[in-house]
Amino acid sequence: MKLQRATRITLMVLAVGLSALVGPGWRTDGTPAQAQARQAIASLYSETGDAVGTVTFTQDAGQVLVRAEVANLPPGFHGFHVHTNGVCDPATQFQSAGGHLDLGSGDLSGGGMAGDMTNLYVSTDSTGLMSFRLDRFTVPNLLVDGGRSVVVHADPDNFRNIPGRYGVTPDQTTLDTGDAGSRIACGVIQEG
Fold first, then answer.
1. How far apart are CA 106 and CA 126, in angstroms?
2. In 10 A of CB 175, how many CB atoms?
3. What's the pLDDT at 165?
4. Gap between the Cα atoms of 50 and 53, Å rounded
5. What is the Cα–Cα distance from 150 to 192, expressed in whole angstroms?
6. pLDDT tens, 137-170?
7. Which CATH architecture has domain 33-191?
8. What is the mean pLDDT of residues 114-134?
9. Which of 29, 37, 94, 173 is deepest in the core (most CB within 10 A)?
10. Measured between alpha carbons, how far is residue 108 from residues 28, 103, 115, 162, 165 in Å?
11. Of all helices (H) and strands (E), which one includes residue 78?
12. Distance in angstroms (rounded) separating the CA atoms of residues 4 and 78
């Protein structure tokens, strides 16, 4: 009887000790809690504060499924990126979101930064729906350091694509933003 009780107490002490070592931001397997996140979502708003859509990010093994649904945006192609900061202040024309997400790996295959995604197409009825997969970032990458944001730009992104045959050297704006123009919608990415 005493042996069983002592064993239970020892196990309880070990469990409490492990949770103290692991802490609230960590899982018992020693990985950050955010590394376990499977889904994130951003609600998009215009500069006037109108809701214009949602973007959902779902981790699926080594890829992220991105699904965007928008309304009340100008028809045409629009630059569509994950930006570094999880702040969407319309008073700054969403400059508070910072630059395109760069995970420090330099240019990725196909060029650009981790946050560069395909252009978003909005139909003549001012709605758009698209879904695609990518492996440039993970859902946990979107939730660290205070989070990230999704930005829709006024113009299409040229993906730094100025062919050498044009005899023009890309300027810093093209290299940084793909000439996607002003920021017309923004949403903070949060765990879903």
1. 35
2. 14
3. 76
4. 9
5. 15
6. 999 999 998 899 999 999 998 776 666 777 777 6
7. Sandwich (2.60)
8. 96
9. 94
10. 33, 10, 10, 17, 23
11. strand 76-78
12. 67
How much is the pLDDT for 146?
A: 83
Calpha distance 100→120 (Å, rounded): 16
Cβ atoms of 98 and 188 within 8 Å: the answer is no
Q: Is the per-residue pLDDT at 113 higher than 90?
A: no
Nearest alpha carbon to residue 176 among 112, 114, 118: 112
User: What's the gap between Cα 31 and its chain centre?
Assistant: 20
Structure tokens at 192: 């879903």
Reply yes or no on whether the pLDDT at 173 is more than 90.
Answer: no
Q: How far is CA 45 from CA 4, 24, 137, 188, in A?
A: 60, 32, 23, 10
Q: What are phi and psi of 60, to 5 degrees?
A: -135, 90
How far is CA 113 from its chain centroid? 12
Tokens (6 digits) for 189: 């990415």
